[in-house]
Specification:
By secondary structure, the chain is α+β, with helices and mostly antiparallel strands. The protein has helices at about 30-60, 65-85, 105-125, 125-150, and strands at about 170, 190-195, 195-200, 205-210, 215-220, 245, 260, 265-270, 275, 285, 300, 305-310. A hairpin with a 4-residue loop joins strand 7 and strand 8.
Length: about 325
């Protein structure tokens, strides 16, 4: 097939020109000049209202001024555009004859050959650019991932499994003062925090609070004397002089369990009303909490301060991933 056979058809198809005298081209408005002036005024009002909204935002005016001006400007702009299309644009409908769109067999063959030839040339000549584009896009993707990865924050590591409570950790109140035997009376409750940092200054001892939010522990004194043998095996000696200590982080969704029903001896979570029996190892008595609150074993050091004799024996707070405790 010769090059002349590949030449596309150049046959011109006459297109009818719409005459201005066509009734479909006339304006719908009875007085187009008047309609044009009114629409222009409406659009000008929208511009003014948008300007007021911008000034209100920039100068921090009252919110109702900004909202009212912005809403009024949008309404005026939409109304003006709608009126323009309704009254000043040709109304139609318009009908014109369509020429035959199907090509001949020779024209279709020529088009297929031309498309195939041109695409192969483009691929052959642009391999380097394609590789460069892929390389640039790959580097961009890696760099774009930097802020995403950084925004996730540091890895939690073992913070969900351990706390700052350990053997010999002194219990401190919210003011950083150590807890002694006489700090609470029977029925008293307070939140305590860990402190492993002690330093002697002029014969006195200075304490420094440390720890995570999950280290918060609720301390309750159930009685002035020793408690009966615990129902939980292995917890003998954990409650000197009637003191018990439990994690303040609810095992349901991590809310602070800070409400105490003294008569019933129940710790209550204010979020979803889980109730824990403090005489029975903080076993849930009501609510959605699936596990008891972890208990902290207590004792005294040589200075008479209340301390933890061991760390918590299980992870604090609600369940995560897979737990064995």
């Amino acid at each position: 097939m010769s090059d002349a056979d590949h030449q596309p058809s150049r046959t011109r198809v006459p297109m009818p020109v719409a005459a201005l005298s066509d009734p479909h081209m006339s304006d719908a408005a009875r007085h187009p000049e008047r309609a044009e002036g009114i629409i222009a005024l409406i659009l000008f009002v929208s511009m003014v209202l948008f300007g007021i909204a911008g000034a209100a935002y920039w100068q921090n005016w009252s919110p109702w001024i900004f909202g009212g001006a912005l809403g009024g400007g949008m309404f005026a702009l939409g109304f003006g555009l709608t009126a323009w299309g309704k009254y000043l644009m040709p109304q139609g409908p318009f009908v014109e004859e369509r020429h035959k769109l199907a090509g001949t067999a020779d024209e279709r063959d020529a088009l297929s050959a031309a498309l195939y030839e041109r695409t192969t040339v483009v691929v052959k000549r642009r391999k380097l650019l394609g590789l460069m584009f892929l390389g640039g896009a790959g580097v961009f993707g890696i760099v774009a991932a930097f802020p995403l990865i950084r925004s996730l924050g540091p890895l939690p590591k073992d913070e969900l499994d351990v706390s700052n409570w350990g053997a010999g950790t002194v219990l401190l109140d919210s003011n950083g003062r150590p807890v002694r035997k006489e700090t609470l009376q029977a029925g008293g409750i307070m939140t305590v925090y860990p402190s492993n940092q002690l330093r002697v200054e002029d014969g006195g001892v200075t304490f420094t609070q440390q720890g995570l939010a999950t280290d918060q522990t609720v301390l309750i004194r159930l009685s002035d004397g020793p408690l009966p043998e615990p129902t939980m095996p292995g917890r003998e000696g954990w409650s000197p002089d009637g003191y018990v200590a439990y994690s303040k982080v609810c095992t349901h969704l991590g809310c602070p369990v800070g409400l105490y029903e003294r008569e019933l001896e129940l710790l209550v979570c204010p979020c979803h009303q889980s109730m824990f029996n403090v005489r029975n190892g903080a076993v849930p008595q009501f609510g959605p909490a699936p596990r008891p609150l972890p208990q902290l074993p207590l004792g005294y050091n040589d200075q008479g301060y209340l301390i933890s004799t061991a760390p918590y024996d299980q992870a604090l707070g609600p369940g995560f991933f897979e737990r064995t405790t």
